[in-house]
Amino acid sequence: MRKHDQSASEIGQRIKEVRKKLKIQQKDMAAAMNIAASYLCDIENGKGNPGPEFFVRLATQFNINLNYLFMGAPDMFIDGEMKIQKQEVDLEDDVDTIEKVAWLMEHSIHLRTVVLTCVNRTIYADREIIRENIKRKKAKAEAECKY
After folding, report:
1. So where are the chain's domains?
2. CA 13 – CA 43 distance, rounded (Å)
3. Nearest alpha carbon to residue 21 among 83, 63, 73
4. What does pTM read for this prediction?
5. How far apart are alpha carbons 43 and 120 in whole angstroms?
6. φ and ψ of 134, to 5 deg
7. Which of 44, 52, 99, 104 could serve as 16's disulfide partner, Cβ 3.0–4.6 Å?
C-alpha cells in the first residue's frame, strides 16, 4: 500500500476551498448537511474526525468530487450529468481513493466505529429478514399440508 501524506488538515483545507468556491458560509453548509457549524469548523481546521456519512452528504449535497477531497485530484466538482463508462474509469484514482479510505479507517476510531456499526446493522437486518422468510415458508408449507 502506498504511503499517504494527506492529513486531516489537508482534507479540511480542501473542504474550506470548496465552501469558498461555492461562496457559502460555514453555517449554511453545515445546515445543508444537517450538522453543527462548530463541527464543520473543526473539520476544516483538521481537528474534526468526520465519518463516511459526512463525506457522502458533502458529495451528494454539493456535487463534490471525493477524489479531490482525499487525493487532491484537479476536478473539485463532479459533472452533474456524468456518465460512468468502464473504459472511462481511471483505475488508479479508484485504487488511490480506496487506499486513502483504508488509511482513514486505520487512523480514525470514529470512522471505524461508524463503518462497523453500519455493517452490524446490515447483518442484523439481514438475519431478521431471513428469519421472517423462514417463518413465512414454514407457515405456507404447513397451510399446504392441511389441505
Report:
1. 8-107
2. 9
3. 63
4. 0.53
5. 27
6. -65, -45
7. 44
